[in-house]
Design brief:
With about 475 residues, this protein is an alpha/beta fold. The protein contains 16 helices and twelve strands.
Length: about 475
């Protein structure tokens, strides 16, 4: 099985590689779930106890079968999960991460409006993946591509592309969520001659959800892409966005807790038909042969595929196999049952955080997804820990062993996020967490969550002493 364990951290960029200390950049080993209590599916996940015994089965399927057919089968399984019955509303394009998905709208824009200058207006930039802003600008966001080759971080992938980026911050300096509908309309009107790409987010790192009602009210020539990479959303929303003509970015490695990373773009037929019927020149894809494989695109996208290498990414395909299996398993739980649990969990943890010595909930919790709770950490003088301090606190807690749980000795939670002049950490439920909570006695259902909040609160005191010494 070892070769398949190694595959889980292959076929991506340097963020998922296992470092010398046996953990990745997020201080987690995706193959080691022994004794781990996790509330960090918004950041990174390890294999869960249901998946690990089946790893060889998944690995054998991915490495020994017809690769084209495997990708097609995975695409069809995603369609069966997300389409309404009898519908075929979108195509699926795979990518090694959510950040890599951000390259696709600018490629599609070039195909639909060749040679036009591009304007990307991006909401919640500070709460997206670390590489998304660079990717939307058409630059390499990492040091490696999915083929394990070194690339020049920050360099233009295709210098022919002329891209401008307008950023709309998620929160004010006080942490309040900003509604940017009017600002976006104004920005669009100032650039009438540019090909426009509107990048909205529904489910940022803290669960922020942009107002999608602005989409039909704005210039029809905007190519909309909606970031659902946390994938904490309903089938109804996915189909609503597809019907609006939005590209939809999803991953299997956040809510559905597959090891990182595995991305997919859902491309509405309205857009895919334009791509299939367009005259695609080699210059449109120049440089992107270092980002995508021909296998990432459906067979019908032969106009794109012929300019890309036919290289197999077994690691990405294995991660998607795990994610789709988990999606199908989770899909069998009644929605009302899940929502009832989430409401109780969210209320319980919010109350525990309010009782703590060092924590303060971020404003507008009610406007964010109920599976994520975001909070700041206070010093003894009531000032707040800054981003770099929170990064050190995060590592201090997750690499240590703890003896306060009944059967866990390690914890994992959501890594720090910047906003304005501040930063916060998160607790987030994923699909397997929900499975486990539903099995527990309602009287003791959230006992471990209470222990976790109390542990984190105590660890702040320890951490502050270390910082001051």
């Amino acid at each position: 099985m070892l070769q398949y364990e190694e595959l889980l951290s292959a076929g991506g960029d340097e963020r998922i590689e296992i470092l010398e200390e046996g953990r990745n950049k997020y201080n987690l080993n995706p193959t080691n779930n022994l004794g781990l209590f996790t509330r960090g599916s918004c950041t990174c996940s390890s294999l869960n106890p249901q998946t690990f015994p089946r790893l060889k089965e998944f690995g054998d399927f991915v490495s020994r079968g017809d690769f084209e057919k495997i990708r097609k089968k995975q695409s069809n399984r995603l369609k069966n999960l997300l389409n309404y019955k009898g519908k075929n509303a979108f195509d699926v394009v795979f990518a090694p991460s959510g950040s890599d998905l951000a390259y696709l709208p600018i490629i599609f824009s070039e195909i639909i409006n060749p040679g036009k200058k591009k304007l990307v207006f991006l909401t919640c930039p500070e709460e997206l993946g670390s590489g998304s802003q660079m990717a939307f600008l058409g630059k390499y966001f990492g040091d490696k591509n999915q083929f394990g080759e070194y690339v020049e971080k920050g360099e233009d992938i295709n210098p022919r592309y002329d891209i401008s980026l307008s950023r709309f911050s998620a929160r004010s300096n006080d942490g309040l969520i900003i509604n940017h509908a009017q600002n976006i309309k104004s920005e669009i009107s100032r650039h009438p001659d540019m090909a426009k790409i509107g990048a909205l987010v529904i489910g940022s790192k803290s669960g922020i959800e942009d107002d999608i009602s602005l989409i039909p009210k704005i210039d029809k020539n905007v190519l909309w892409v909606v970031d659902l990479c946390q994938f904490r959303n309903s089938k109804k929303l996915v189909n609503q966005l597809i019907k609006m003509g939005c590209l939809v970015m999803v991953t299997g490695s956040k809510f559905y807790m597959s090891p990182p990373f595995c991305g997919a773009m859902l491309v509405p037929k309205k857009i895919s038909n334009k791509i299939k019927n367009a005259e695609i020149k080699p210059s449109f894809l120049s440089g992107y042969n270092h980002i995508f494989s021909a296998y990432d695109f459906p067979e019908e996208y032969d106009g794109i595929r012929k300019f890309l290498p036919f290289r197999k990414n077994l690691g990405l395909t294995l991660r998607w196999e795990i994610a789709i299996d988990e999606m199908e398993r989770f899909n069998k739980i009644p929605v009302a049952k899940v929502n009832s649990l989430l409401k109780k969990w969210n209320n319980f943890v919010n109350q525990e955080i309010k009782k703590s010595k060092h924590f303060e909930l971020m404003p507008h919790q009610e406007k964010t997804n109920s599976t994520i709770i975001s909070f700041k950490i206070k010093n003894d003088d009531n000032s707040y820990l800054e981003y770099d301090q929170l990064k050190r606190f995060f590592k201090y807690v997750v690499i240590d062993e703890h003896n306060c749980f009944d059967r866990f000795n390690k914890v994992f939670f959501g890594q720090p996020v910047r906003y304005g002049y501040g930063a916060f950490i998160r607790l987030a439920l994923g699909s397997n967490n929900i499975f486990n909570l539903l099995k527990r006695d309602p009287k003791t259902q959230f006992d471990n969550d209470q222990i976790l909040v109390e542990l984190l609160d105590r660890k702040v005191d320890e951490f502050l002493k270390i910082e001051q010494s």
